[in-house]
Amino acid sequence: MKLLSCEYKGETFAAVSDGKLAYRAAEDMDSLIKALDGRLPGADMLCGKGVELSEVKLLAPIPEPRQDVICLGMNYMDHSAEAARWGKDDFVKNAGKAVYFSKRAAYIVGPGGEIDPHFDIVEGLDYEAELAVVLGKDAYKVTKEDAFGYVLGYSVLNDVSARNLQKAHKQFYFGKSLDTHTTMGPWIVTRDEFAPGAPELDIRCFVNGEKRQDSNTRYMIFGVAEVISELSKGMTLKAGTIIAMGTPAGVGMGFEPPKYLACGDVVRCEIDGIGTLENRVKK
User: Fold this and answer.
1) Same-domain pairing of 222 and 125
2) Phi and psi dihedrals of 248, rounded to 5?
3) Are the beta carbons of 129 and 204 closer than 8 angstroms?
4) pLDDT in tens, 160-216
């Protein structure tokens, strides 16, 4: 099942979809997640008059998250290596422990939305294709064995990054949190659409049609269940929480010379089994 936020005839709402039609389910995604109360949507929600997916404008699945996005840094070994080459004193390696940081996302940009480059303060605008995990219920002191029961589903996320701000401030928050620098979509695919356990999905990123990233989520150092269990040992992860699971090698800063984004560039992030997220850098 796909869960999506969309606009149709001037009205925005959350919907469920079988991949062909969108069926209105709630006023917004937060309300839909609350109504599901930890359950997965069933076929009984595909009722009433559906709208062709081609007729709705897709928004980010959770356009205005109630809390910051939780992110993992250096969660693919190859990306950790390329980050160290760019500036080993500026990026903390995981050293056997997950690197966590938060990303302010007052409003998440959806499919087709524009990325404001903020070039008045940004040098080195970069892309990062990532698997996003969305929780369906509050998680606290969850075991790894039970962790997937707290997952609502998965989406595609582009963790747009201002490398000069990361480097100057010696941490990730400011350089990751500029307005429009989180894009997500096209929808949330519920966990029951995948084999039980950790999904192993091909993940790619293209810039103006050039393939830059090409990997698989099986190469994540710390997996979904491990992350949920570790974080929930000491904090409550609320329903609707978004966890961005890190990016593989191939980001702009990893090339010699770096291949950063410019005005007009089109970034396409893909994860098999979930979908495609495409955004243009504003001219």
Assistant:
1) yes
2) -80, 180
3) yes
4) 999 999 999 888 999 999 999 999 999 999 999 999 998 999 999 999 999 999 999
Q: Which residues contact 44 (CB under 8 A, 6 or more apart)?
A: none
| Closest alpha carbon to 170 in 83, 72, 90, 88 | 90
CA–CA dist 189, 82 (Å, integer): 31
Model pLDDT, residue 178 = 98
The answer to whether residue 251 sits within a structural domain is yes
CA proximity to 269, closest of 171, 132, 177: 132
Question: Residue 32 belongs to what domain range?
Answer: 2-58
Choose among 199, 220, 202: nearest CA to 99.
Answer: 220
Q: Are 241 and 33 in contact (CB under 8 A)?
A: no
Give the C-alpha separation, 40 to 30, whole Å.
Answer: 14
- Looking up tokens 């996003």 gives 132
Q: Are residues 212 and 262 in the same domain?
A: yes
Phi-psi group of 47: left, alpha or beta (phi > 0 → left; psi -120 to 50 → alpha; rest → beta): beta
